[in-house]
Model the fold of this input.
Amino acid sequence: MIPLFAFEDATCRNLADTHGTPCFVYSGAAAEAQFSSLRAVLPSRVRLAYAVKANPHPGLLARFAALGASFDCASMGELARVGALMLPPGRTFFAGPGKRAEELRKALAMGVRVQAEGCEDLARIDALADRDVAVNLRVHPAFEVDEGNRIIGGSGPSAFGVDEEDVPELLQRAASLRHVRIQGLHVFAASNQRDASKLLAIHGAVLGLAKRLSEAHGFVFEQIDLGGGLGVPYAVDERPLDLISFGQGLSTLLTQHAWFTGELILEPGRFLAGPCGIYLARVVRIKESRGTRFAILEGGINHLIRPLLTGQPFPVKAVGKGQGSRPYTLAGPLCTSLDRLGDVRLPELQAGDLLAFGTTGAYGLSEGMTHFLSHPVPPEVWVD
Ligand SMILES: Cc1ncc(COP(=O)(O)O)c(C=O)c1O
Done:
C-alpha cells in the first residue's frame, strides 16, 4: 500500500522546526521507491518519461535521471531544467499546445523529440530545421475518455493535438514539408486513473488507433506515447493502482499488437512524484462562524490550488494528534472565500498545531499558477 504521507509524525515535527512553516518537503527515498516499483512491472519495451510539470524540483529530476528516466517537458523552463542534467539524446520529449518559436528552436538544438500538436507545429519545425527531424504526432482521439476531473477535457473540442478525423487533411498539408518525418504517435487520454483495467482499455484503444492510422496512411511508428494519467490515492479508502495487473496488461497489449515493433512511452507525473511530498502548515487560529468551525492556516490556495481547481482535496493529518473527528473547514490566509483546502474531520485543533498534507509531491507548489510548467513570470510594466 502506498502511504498517503511520505513522513512519520516525528519527522514532520522536526522538519517544521528546522525549516519553518509553511513548507513543502520531498522524500528522495519515496520518489525512488515509486519509480522503481513502476519500472519493475513494465515490459522492457516501455520507456518511462517523467512529466516534469508534476514537480520540476532539481533533486527529483536528478534522482529520476539516475534511475534511467526519460523526461516529458512542456516549456522552455522545463527544457532548461532537464537540459542541465546533460542526458544522452533520446531521453527528452517536448509537448504542449502553445509552443513558441524560441522553445521549438531550443528543443531542436537539444535534439529533443517534439510531440507535434498539428499542422502549424509541423510547419514551424520544418522551417527551423536544417536536417531531417523525427517528430511524434499528437492526436486527439475520437473515442470516449473516462476521467473523474477536467484535466483531459473529454473527447469534445480540444486545444491538444490534431483531431483524429482531421489526420488525412493534415497529412495532405504536410506532404510538401522538407525535413519533418512523423515517426511516432502521442495520445494522452487518461487522468488520475487508479483502475488498471480502465487504463489498459484506453491504451488498447490508442494502439487500435495507431494500427488504423498505420494501415490507412502507411505510418511506421517507432514510438507510441501513451501519455500520463496513472493515478494515486488521495484518501484512505481509495485503492492504489494495481501495478502487477497494469504491467501484465501492457505486455498482453504488446503481444496482441505484434504489428508494432517499436517502443511504448509512458509519461507519468502524478504517480511518480505525488506520494513523495508533504506540505506542512500550522494553524494560525480557530474560528467558529454560524455553525462552521474554521481552522485558518498559514498557507492556502497560494500553495495548493488543486482543491479549488478540481474539487479534490489533499489528504491531511494533524501531526502528533492521532485520529479524531471534529469537522473543520480548512481556510488559508488569503482575503478571499475561495481560499479553502477542504472540509475535513480532524482531532480537536488549536493555534500552533501542525498539519501535514500528503501526496503533495505532484501538482502542489508546482501547480501554483505562475509556477506551473516553469513558464517565465511575466514582467509588470509601470507606465506613468
Ligand atoms: C503531455 C502530458 N504528458 C503527461 C502528463 C502527466 O500526467 P499525469 O501527471 O496525470 O501522469 C501531462 C499532464 O498534464 C501531459 O499534459
Notes: The two ends are 59 Å apart (CA to CA). The mean pLDDT is 93. Residues 28-273 form a domain with the TIM Barrel fold (CATH 3.20.20.10).
